[in-house]
Amino acid sequence: MTLNNFLFFFLIVYNLQVSFFLPINNKNRKLFSEIQLTEIGKFGLIRKARKTVPSHIHTGIDIKRPNKNYINEPVFAISQGEVISKRTDGPYAQLIIEHEINKKKFWTVYEHIAGITVNLHDIVSPEKPIARFMNKNELNKFGWQFDHFHLEILKTTPITIQPDKLHPDRHYNSFSLICFNSDDLEKHYYDPIEFLKEHMH
């Protein structure tokens, strides 16, 4: 067992209070009035089919940049947990973090991020950034439609995938593009807004 894993399990065994925060750098990270979503960023919206992507239901929320910082606007984990998957390829860069509260696991996904500061199996907390929003150079390269980041909260274990040379730390994937109806959505996902409202005190 690594030191990080030991610390994670220590926190669980001793039932230390798990704190939840918004994943962005707003004035009050427990105040929902400051969080803004993109026009098509709400949970459960039907997304139209694109060239390589079938029509599907939006499985998370797309959070707008909270400030005019286009250099290093931070992204945070919503709660303490362990990084179980890391993808670093351009606009599809992604972190998946496993959490536990009251002996029940859940998973968070952070996508369309950049400047990832954590590694596989790191224990993260909501106090330190795990990544950042894309900067102006990256948005000019990949497209300004990525001027947000995508947050999901899963009820079920993410899909196990085999790492490869391009993605040596990518061990899991979300159900994002294979969620085709409300039953799929209900089975795999929490509404992030409702989940955070319930757990943030």
Spell out the key features of this protein.
about 200 residues; alpha+beta; two-stranded antiparallel ribbon; 4 helices; globular; Glucose Permease (Domain IIA); seven-stranded antiparallel β-sheet
Q: Brief description of this entry?
A:
The chain is α+β, with helices and mostly antiparallel strands and 201 residues long. It has helices at residues 3-13, 136-142, 182-188, 192-199; strands at 46-47, 56-57, 61-64, 74-76, 81-87, 94-101, 104-111, 123-124, 129-132, 148-154, 159-160, 172-173, 189-190.
Structure report:
This protein is of the alpha+beta class. The protein is 16% helix and 26% strand. The protein has helices spanning 3-13, 136-142, 182-188, 192-199, and strands at 46-47, 56-57, 61-64, 74-76, 81-87, 94-101, 104-111, 123-124, 129-132, 148-154, 159-160, 172-173, 189-190. Strands 3, 5, 6, 7, 8, 10 and 13 form a 7-stranded antiparallel sheet that branches. It has a two-stranded antiparallel sheet with strand order 1-2. The protein is globular. It starts with a helix and ends with a helix. The relative contact order is 0.20.
